[in-house]
Amino acid sequence: MAGIAGITAGTTQAAKAMLNQxxxxxxxxxxxxxxxxxxxxxxxxxxxxxxxxxxxxFHNDQITVSIAGTVFIDxxxxxxxxxxxxxxxxxxxxxxxxxxxxxxxxxxxxxxLYLVRDAVGEKTxxxxxxxxxxxxxxxxxxxxxxxxxxxxxDVGSIFRYFTYSFCPMDNTMVKEIKELPAGFYLExxxxxxxxxxxxxxELEAIAKSTNTDVNFWAPRVREQIEALVxxxxxxxxxxxxxxxxxxxxxxxxxxxxxxxxxxxxxxSIHFGKKYGNELDYAKMVADRWKTEHHEVLVSPKKFxxxxxxxxxxxxxxxxxxxxxxxxxxxxxxxxxTDIIFNGEGGDPCFGGPKNIPMLMQDLYPIxxxxxxxxxxYLDSYRRGYTHMKNFFSxxxxxxxxxxxxxxxxxxxxxxxxxxxxxxxxxxxNIRLKGAHLILPKVERxxxxxxITPIAPLFSKQIVESSMQMPSNLKLHGGIExxxxxxAFANDIPxxxxxxxxxxxxxxxxxWFQGEMKRYARKLLNKKSLKQAGIFNPEAVSxxxxxxxxxxxxxxxxxxxxxxxxxxxxxxxxxxxxx
Length: 578
What we know:
Blueprint: E1 2-8, H1 12-21, E2 30-33, E3 37-44, E4 56-59, E5 63-69, E6 71-73, E7 77-79, H2 81-91, E8 99-100, E9 103-109, E10 112-117, E11 126-130, E12 133-137, H3 140-144, H4 155-164, E13 177-179, E14 184-189, E15 194-199, H5 214-232, E16 239-242, H6 247-259, E17 264-270, H7 279-289, E18 292-297, H8 300-303, H9 307-314, H10 323-333, E19 339-341, H11 346-350, H12 355-359, H13 372-380, H14 388-391, H15 394-397, H16 402-405, H17 411-414, H18 421-447, E20 452-454, H19 460-468, H20 482-487, H21 494-498, H22 508-511, H23 517-523, H24 526-532, H25 537-544, H26 555-572
Parallel strand pairs: 16-17, 16-19, 17-18, 19-20
Antiparallel strand pairs: 1-3, 1-12, 2-3, 4-5, 5-9, 6-7, 6-8, 9-10, 10-14, 11-12, 11-13, 14-15
Helix pairs in contact: 5-6, 6-7, 10-18, 24-25
């Protein structure tokens, strides 16, 4: 892992508090201070070199630069803090458009501070404006640690969390803390204490190619993915791949196996014999490439003792149940490697499931209600969107404004005239789900075990190709991710290409009726819920009983989301100890 943090007009006490809160990321302490700011630079775990060669700080009388991650220019040439300083002094903020890679960086120059997040969101950066100062950190908990900082819950984000299972765009669960969106930078003026959010990577501005030939695009996509994998294989040690048995992870496993000379470890999750799994499909791929394959059992008995710590590592609550299996799989994999490749990005970039139902919204020219696309998209997450009015308290519901808190976030995407319908959905999935759920979740869960995650399908180069590509090569005659299937047809067992996506089905439905029943009831007890004032205790009680009286469905998922939120709230708002 790696990280940066800092504070303007900060005290030594505040700086040390931030530093201590982020020590789990591994720190080589470099602090640069001027009368205007304190930079806490170069938090870097000693084993995490493959994805962090740019990490570090540079400081002189003109400029201060602090980087976490890897910054590329011209696609694959790595920049250091010193070279970033040189380029910035020459080109200013125009430089940001030419950068790629998984990084966040902070630059102090003259009377301005610039905080920059990479194009697709492989790294995170949070900031808060309070008491005429700006604080920033790779994890929000760094800001929480400042003695003078007082967090409060953001009501709109609570509604968004129970709709998406995460907080999208610049929203976080804390009103005073914002997340820097992917492809943006924050420009802060020391003289006025004002900040402006500006975009350096705009999906909507990528020109659509007129070349519709699959024989052009399939080799191009394959070549790009292989180049990204090869760049990460320069270290000659053993690496691993998280292998689900789906298309995306299977093609990555094949790609890594063909390009690396060392043994490849593949890791697959299962939840026990009585629950469904995809182990047979994963084993097909492992056998095809002769990997050292590991099947890892994840059960409540194993993860409940560390659940609070897992949610603490998530930083902002994530209600997707796959987070804990990711955490447990990483803990196991750390015994074999510190580098894990994954297939994240295939769905958002190349036309995964849920897009076809959305496209059918306008198939027939009938009159639709206002914001029908937004409502359909929110419902497609199948989280708490349709149930919120039944499980929140009256005081919470009195504050709900669906257009402001939920639909309004999506409207600009659906009104974007430069994109067709498919690419509007791609843009939403890349900018929202990718940058604020998929990539941060994996980075946090693997980083907790000092593992570097690598997602070749979710890079700036692949995102650009995805947006340039004719849409019918992503969804072709109803075939999802058509171009990926064409590009890697010879590397993936045919049953995997032919099967529909099923996703990792974490058996929360059964856990909360069995192994986790007591844990959930204790955490979501009526007295505690009534005191917090967020949920309707009677409704939560009905959900815990798996009652369908009020139309509740997917009870296990609702309980998981409530449980995650409550643990997070107690840790970060009520300041309970771990």
